[in-house]
Specification:
The protein has about 80 residues and is α+β, with helices and mostly antiparallel strands. The chain contains one helix and four strands, in the order ββββα. The protein is extended.
Length: about 80
């Protein structure tokens, strides 16, 4: 049975797919305080006070699904062509 995060918590795992510096060093999933599923990304940085993590949190449903949207647009368009 996979672990299911409780609201207000998340897990981060080392990003094994990192190919560029702009890709996160760690990524994971969890739930915000309302129980919505979130994606979490973290980058390791060096600053004047020492090492720190810069993090980004997004709701999963807020992520743009460009490929699916474009596919839908074209399939609707094809159905309207009269020939």
């Amino acid at each position: 049975m996979p672990y299911e995060a409780k609201p207000g918590s998340f897990n981060l795992f080392k990003n094994k797919d990192k190919k560029e510096d702009k890709h996160p060093d760690y990524k994971g999933e969890g739930k915000d305080l309302d129980g919505n599923v979130i994606s979490v990304a973290a980058w390791l940085n060096d600053g004047a006070a020492g090492k720190y993590m810069s993090c980004k949190i997004e709701r999963k449903e807020d992520k743009p699904v460009v490929a699916a949207a474009k596919k839908q647009e074209f399939s609707d368009f094809d159905q309207e062509i009269p020939f």
